[in-house]
Write a structure and sequence with these properties.
Elements (H helix, E strand, L loop, with lengths): L2 H14 L3 H16 L18 H24 L4 H16 L2 H6 L1 H7 L3 H10 L7 H20 L1
Helix pairs in contact: 1-2, 1-3, 1-4, 1-8, 2-4, 3-4
Amino acid sequence: MLLTNHTLTGILLGLSIDNPVLLAPTAVASHLVLDMTPHFWFKKAPDHKGFHDPKFLVFGSVDFVLSAGITVAACVARPDRALNIIIGAVGAALPDLTYIPIIIFGKARIEHWLPFYRPMIAFLAKIQWYEKPPGLITEVAWASLMIWLLHFSW
């Protein structure tokens, strides 16, 4: 699922759940559930070399900036809920953010530093369900639902 959709989901959770101790794991769980639905993204090669594909880097960077911008805008719009919005957004995005070290440092170096990294990434990759173009329909439908629900949460 696009990081933007995970972020929108996390923001909605941040506006809906008062307890940060419950919010954080719920936001991470929402990410895993969404990754098990058909969604649009680039298929990653087993060796993760696809992370250096220029299309992936541009699309991923735009998605990341959009997600960060939406989070900042939500915090500005609802400063009373800013902490929960940040916890929800970061929690919902966290599993995808774990790929950033691979992009920056390379898979072998990260696995050398963090032995648990390989099984974690293998799990995250295994639950992904990529579908083109039906996955794009899921992405648009989910984003529309989250925006509609967020409209009623303000």
